[in-house]
Amino acid sequence: MVLSPYDQSVYDAGYKYIPQSQYLLNPFQIPGGSENEVPSGLPAIYQAGGSGGGGGALQAGSPMTDYNNFYKYTSDKYFNNQATPNVDDLYQSKVDKTFMGMPSYRQQELTGPDMGEYIGSGTDIPLEQTMAGRIQSGIGTVKGGIQNLMGKVGSLGPVSFLMNKMDKFGSLPLADQEFIKMNMGYTGPTVFGENTTGNSKDPFGLNTRSALGNYAERVGVEYDKLGNMLGGKMSEKYGVEFDPETGTFIGKNAAYANKMNKMNLAKYNFYKQQTLRRDLDRKTAERNARIEAERKAAASRAESARQYDSNVHGPTNYGLGSDGQQSYDSGQGFGTNATTGGPVSNKTGRGRTDYMDGGLADMLEIYD
Question: Can you tell me the distance from the alpha carbon of 301 to that of 318, in angstroms, rounded to the nearest whole number?
């Protein structure tokens, strides 16, 4: 692996486990003291020294094993990759745009006279999307993403077909999809060494985006597993207690136990913070979904009150059907859809509550 001149100087200075500059938000500054000294501008966490690890593997005190550093790096990547239409629509931006190493746009093929007219007037020659560009344009929606890509390339062979069928990312809850996307973008070394796959991973080697898994679930599994191990056999082994709040051992032999479990403690604290953020994201999504459902239900009730006429629709107001039209009183204890004639629920009158459609009423009851 060829290092840049600056990264080589860091390595030669004895800092063999610092990620390359391309993986860091700010270049690593070589301190004036010993290798174990905490560099200026980095959190006060253990800086590994000596030999071991090999292959540029991250150590327990490496900056990227700290949750805050990792989150800032991946979240900055995420927001920097969001659509910027005012820039993306510029002519040169389109010319420079590529997808999988192929140009996304090309100049239209014009006849000699037409070409000369554009050149003579100093006007840009119109662009058109290439096949790569058309595939690229089909990616990036919150619900589609990679599944859209797989749909585009599915005809290339059985492997692509199987990948398309196996990829379950699009079926995950939207809150989990967003959590995963916010954790993508780091392709640097992990605790296992250099990341030769090119896939997005967290510092402890887990794929943050996979076809079959759910990283949002996995961080909780790792958090629980590590907590049980540290609070169980490791506490017994060293004659200490594990404090899950601080993520450290306490007791007579705490210093020794903490020293011997640097990596375990680093992993625990990383996945603890990941789990807390995931749970907050999920609660926020649930709250927003409930607010939106209640807003739609209120709008439906208001529209029903406007449309309802007891002389036309019957003595009981069963609200709107899924067609947005006022339902009719069947005279049998339930309403009927104005378009299909199918039954409409009379449980709550919270909106479009056709039995056959599941209805907003059922959706709201999930949160009650």
Answer: 10
